[in-house]
């Protein structure tokens, strides 16, 4: 599985970012530009995934790692963000709410 750190993400990537946390978690604060597709309903929204390479993030990296593995097995070019939104916030990076 491909992975990057929150520092790599913050440095700038020209890829869509999918946040797989639940809607209430996303609403409380997320990485700017992220799109919310919760893991719990992702199977119903596979048609909304980008056709191009993309990154996935969650709160600490566990859910997004599972999603990345499953989507990579389906042929998607997907990268997990290690440490997730929690590490993004801990690093002092801005969030949108």
Automatic annotation (TrEMBL):
What sequence ranges are listed for the domain Rhodanese?
11-97
Molecular function terms from GO = thiosulfate-cyanide sulfurtransferase activity
From the Swiss-Prot or TrEMBL record, give the protein name: Rhodanese-related sulfurtransferase
**Amino-acid biosynthesis: present as a keyword of the record?**
no
Task: Give a yes or no for keyword Transferase in this entry.
Answer: yes
Annotated InterPro entries: GlpE_sulfurtransferase (IPR050229), Rhodanese-like_dom (IPR001763), Rhodanese-like_dom_sf (IPR036873), Thiosulphate_STrfase_CS (IPR001307)
- One Pfam family name is Rhodanese
Originating species: Microbacterium enclense
Family matches, as PANTHER family: FAD-DEPENDENT OXIDOREDUCTASE (PTHR43031), PYRIDINE NUCLEOTIDE-DISULPHIDE OXIDOREDUCTASE (PTHR43031:SF1)
Which CDD domains does this entry report, sorted A to Z?
RHOD
Q: Which UniProt keywords apply?
A: Transferase
